[in-house]
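As described in the Methods, two query proteins were run sequentially through the folding procedure within a single session, without resetting any intermediate state between them. The first query and its resulting structure tokens are shown here.
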Amino acid sequence: MTDTTVQVHRVYIKATAQAIWDAITRPEWTARYGHRGLSEYDLRPGGAFVGRANEGMIARGTPEVAVDGEVVEADPPHRLVQTFRMLMDPGLAAEGFTRLTYEIAEGANGVCTLTVTHDLTGAPGLAGLMRGDFEAMGAGGGWPWTLSGLKTLLETGKELES
């Protein structure tokens, strides 16, 4: 039996679409929220995506490249589709690539909607991690935690303390 899991997360952020896009795709921003690792994108179809572990993660044995993937579609600053494979754990890495979509829609009064759709079909371990099931064990709170950090950073200029 195949495990089919699609997680959809939506957050409203008082920021421009370009600011949200930059926070997702530029390493100087990704180092300030979520797991605070540097994410690097070659923003063209077939381009590489690399998510690097932060120093604390590396000190605990995480490989330098914690996540990898490939850009499927990039339409700055509104839509990014990529593959996503977690390399931090051999079991998660063996689950293979999943599909991740970011959609940014401009709304009224300077508020944009960021919708993150993560198709985790066939990746039950990663689905649990991204749901935040392992937060109590120090693995972070998955997408809800990451997106809360992104929103806080863009709206206040300050990093979310966890």
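Immediately afterward, the second query was submitted; its sequence and tokens are:
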Amino acid sequence: MSEIVIGPAAAGDLPALEFMVENCYRGDHARMGWTHEADMLRGPRLDSGELASVFANPDAVIFVARQGSDIVGCVTVTDRPPDSAYIGMLCVDPPFQSSGLGGRLLATAELLCANLGVVRARMSVVEGRDELVAWYERKGYVRTGEREPFHAPQEQPMFFTMLEKRIASA
């Protein structure tokens, strides 16, 4: 088995990245892992236009984890001046979960935040994903007390819990 390498995504990665993200969050493949939303949410996690928009944003970077030519994880960082960055779309293909790859991707995102000179990294997690929030809390994130509405159509109204972590400058 080859080493997993983390680096910035390229434009040619977007179709495989979209496929991997969908399989990490939704459907039967996602149920193999512990971080899925397959039983909470319906519909696609993102679409190619949304992913292309993030990729084209000059204030954002998408990191991908590769094993050989396969994308097995990702995370995004979006600079939000003057003092914060948003970390999103952290996901790891279920067969690679519990290997430490999620922690490596998060550390990569936090290093970029430190290099940007931001004071805090922020993220949102769908309410009800207590095990995932607990994982972020073990990584130093705290709940801000803020909630944001989840805008995708669902039977019941849903919300995001906002988390943040103070970042030391590099």
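The two ends are 33 Å apart (CA to CA). We note this only descriptively and draw no conclusion about the first query from it.
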